[in-house]
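Entry:
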Amino acid sequence: MIHSKYKWQVETADAAAMQQVADELKCTLPMAELFSRRKVTTAGQLDKFLNPDKYEAYDPFLFAEMGLAVDRIKQAIEAEEQILVYGDYDADGVTSVTVLLKTLRKLGASADFYIPNRFTEGYGPNVAAFTQAKDSGVDLLITVDNGISALDVMAHAKEIGLDVIVTDHHEAKETMPEAVAVIHPRHPESNYPFPDLAGVGVAYKLAHALLGEEPTELLDLVAIGTVADLVSLTDENRLFVQKGLRILRENANIGVSALAKLASAKLPEATEETIGFMIAPRLNAVGRLGPADPAADLLLTEDPEEAVFLAEEIDEANKERQTIVAQIAGEAIAMIEAEFLGEGNEVLVIGKAGWNPGVVGIVASRLVDRYARPVIVLGIDEVTGIAKGSGRSIEAFHLYQALDANQALLKAFGGHPMAAGMTLDVADVATLRTNLSQLARETLSPEDFVSILRVEEAIPVETVTIDFIAQLNKLAPFGTDNPKPVFALEGVRLIGTKRIGTDKNHLKTAITADSGASIDAVGFGTGELVEKISPMAKVDVVGELSINEWNNMRKPQLRIVDLKIGHWQLFDVRSRAEWEKLLQTDGMADKVFVCFQDGTREKLLAENANLVCAQIQSIDDCTDAATKDLIFADMPDDVALLEALVTNTSADRIYLHVEAKNGNAIASMPSRQHFAQLYAVLKKHQPFPLAQNMSRLCKQFSWTDDQVDFMSRVFFDLNFATIEDGVIRLNEIREKRNLEDSAVYKARVYRIAMEQKLLYSNYNELYDWMEKLMNSKGNSILEETVK
C-alpha cells in the first residue's frame, strides 16, 4: 500500500452540455471538457484562446490616471528632467524595470533605475532611498511592481517635492498613495477589464500608452515576468505570454539568450516551463543573495560580451542559491518535526538566525507542499533583533488579509493571497504564530489542510498517443488558472521501475495496462518509491503528459505527479542478492524484522544495532507489529507462526526471506519401502544398538542419519518400538496402524509442504496464499492443503 500525497479531485462534467460545447467548438468531447473548464465555450472564445495575433491588447487608457502619468512623463522628457525607475528584486521586478527603462530611453528620456537591496532596505519604497534620489537630482520617480502600500513613503516624497508615479499590481489598501498618478489594474476608479496583470504587464501598458503603440519587441520580457510571478495565465496575460514566447524562440533579448545558453535551455523550443524552471529562477537568484542590479543590467545590455559576463555571474548565484535552499529546508523540516506539529501550529511560523531571508520564500513553498498548511519562514538578525521572511499559503487561507489583521506586529509587509513578505521584531514572532494559527482554526475546516490535486479525468493507457498530446498542447501556455492537464491512469502496473539521476533520486518506469498498452513515465524526486512498489502491484497514477524526443524518436511520456496503491504488497527477497539489497536500503529503522530462528536476531543486530527485530517463538508472540513494513527474516519451524502474523498484520508491505537449515534443500520423506526395510532390520537384529549401527545402515540403504532418526521416531510414536540407552526393541503389535497416524510423520509431511511453499512457490502463489490468510480469520491455509 502507498498513500497518495494529495487528495485527487477528479473533475466531472455534464455529458449533454459537453456535447454542445464539442459541437460549438468542432472538437472532440475530451477536448471540449478541457476547454470548458477554462471558460472557453464559444467559437469566438476559442479563436481568441488559440490565435492571439488576431486580437489587440486592451486600451491602456482604460487604466485610471493613465493620462496623468503619460502627461507627467512626457513633460519630464521635454524638460530633460531626471527620471528614476524604482523596481523590485525579483524576476517580475527586473523585467518591469527593463521594459519601462527601454521605453523611456527610446523616447529620449534621461533615465536610470534603482532596485532596493533586499537585506538592507527590504521590499518596496523607503524614505532613505527616496530622499537620496531627490538629493541626487531626480525630478520624477516611477515605481514598478511596488509602491501601492507605501503610503507613508509617498507622503514623504510629496513633502520633499519628489513627483512619484506608482505602477503596481499587488494588493492595495483602502487608501491610494499620494502620487501624481497610480496605475493599478484594480484601482477603484479604473475601467480596465483585466485585473490580474503582473507588475511587468502594468509597466508594459504604461510603455504602450507612452509610445502610442505596443512595443511588441519587449514581449519576451513581459512573458518572463508574467510567468515568473505566477499570475493568472488567462485573458491578456495569456496573449502576452503566447506572443512573448514566439519572440523568445525567434529573437530573444541578448541577455536572456546568454543566460539560457548557460542553463542549457533551447530557446527555439521555449515554453512557459523554460521560463519557469530555467530563466526565472536564475533572474531571481541574484536578488535573493545580494543586489539585484546585475539581473537588470543583463536584460538592459546591448553588448554580447557584457551579457555573457553577467549571465555567468547570475548562473553562479543560482547554484549558490540552490545549495543554501537545500540546507535551510533540511533544518526547517527538522525544526518543524521536533517542535511545531500538532494543534496550535495550523500556520507554521518558523525562523532561525543565519537563514538567508532572500531564499526563505522558496523554502516556504516546499514546506507548504510537504505539510499542506500556510508557512512563514524567517531569517533572524540577532544583532538587530529583526526577523525578515516570506510566507506561502494554501487556497483557503488569504495570507495578505491575515497579515493585514496583524499589522500592529509587523514593521512592513506586502503581497498576495497566496504569498507575502514581512518584517517584524523577533519578540513578536511567537505572537504572530499564535494569532495566525487561531485565525486558521476559526476559519478553516480539516479538509482545507489537505492538498488538492485537480485531475481532469481518468483515461485508458491506450488513448495516450502523440496526436492526443498534440491536441493538449494547444491549451498552452499553462500556468495559474490554466493548469497543465493532469490525468489519472488507474489499475496499471509499473514495469522495469528503477532509480535514475546523478543522485538516484528520480524514478523511471513503464506504465502498462492489462491490454498490454504501455507508455514511459518519469517521476522527479520520487526515487524512494522504487523500493516500495512490488512487481505485481496495481497502481493508480496521476501525471502530466508530454512528448519525449530522443534520437529522432518521439514517444508519449507521463511525468508522474502522484501515485497510490490501495492494497498490501508482497516483496520476494528470498534470493541473497535481493536480501542484501534490502538490508542496504535507507530507512531500515522504520521496518520490523521477524526472526523465528535462534541467532537470526543477534546476527541482524550485530550488523545494524538500530534495526527493530522481533523474536517469534510462540503464537502468543504473534501480535500485529505497528509497522508499515514487516520483514520475515528466516524460516519458521512451525509455519503457523508466520500464518498468524500474516493474518493479523496491518502492514502495507510484507517482505519474505526464508532459508532452510540445510541450505534450501527440502528434507526428503522416506518411502514406505524404507520404513519396511528398517523394520525388517530391527526385527532380525533386536535388540538393536542404533548409534553403533548407524553408519552401516546408511551405507547399506543409502540413507542419511536424519532419515534413520526420523523413521525410528515414527516407530516410537506408533508404539512399534521403544528405545532405552540407545538400544531399540520392537513391541508386540496388537493392531494395525498407518504411518499417517503418527504425529511425528504428519509433522514431517507438514514441514516439507511448508518448505516447498516458502522456498519454491512463485511470486503469484505466495501472494495468493497470503491474501487468503488475511481473509481466512486465522485458519491455516497450508494445513488445510496438507489435509
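The radius of gyration is 37 Å.
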